[in-house]
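Hi Y.,

Following your request, here is the sequence exactly as I used it, all 119 residues.
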Amino acid sequence: MAAVPVLVMPLKLWIDRPGPLTAESGYYPSGHTATAMVAYCGAALLLAPRTGRVGRGWAMPVAVVLSAATGIGLVLRGYHWPLDVLGSWLLCGMLLALLVAALRRIDNHGAAGSGTDAP
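Below is the corresponding structure, written out as tokens. Let me know if you'd prefer a different format.
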């Protein structure tokens, strides 16, 4: 979650694009979409292994639907252009991919160091 403003705010300042219903700038990428996606999908990634087989089947699809609904709602209400939301989805998709890679690396190191390997 801490990485979202670190990534989003400099892009908003650099691109400085006006929103659909206002002359104010700083709408790309959507910070609300980015925060929602990282919160929902990050929670799903962290909860799925602890909820058993059933949790793995529904946690991420629910998170994706909630993230999509948030972004689409922001576009329909006129707060963001579609590209603002798409940019956030792509940016946070990369961020979540890095999180998954880090979690897998931690799991692999934990399993290797657990002493379960017999010589």
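The CA atoms of residues 100 and 106 lie 10 Å apart.

Thanks again,
Q.
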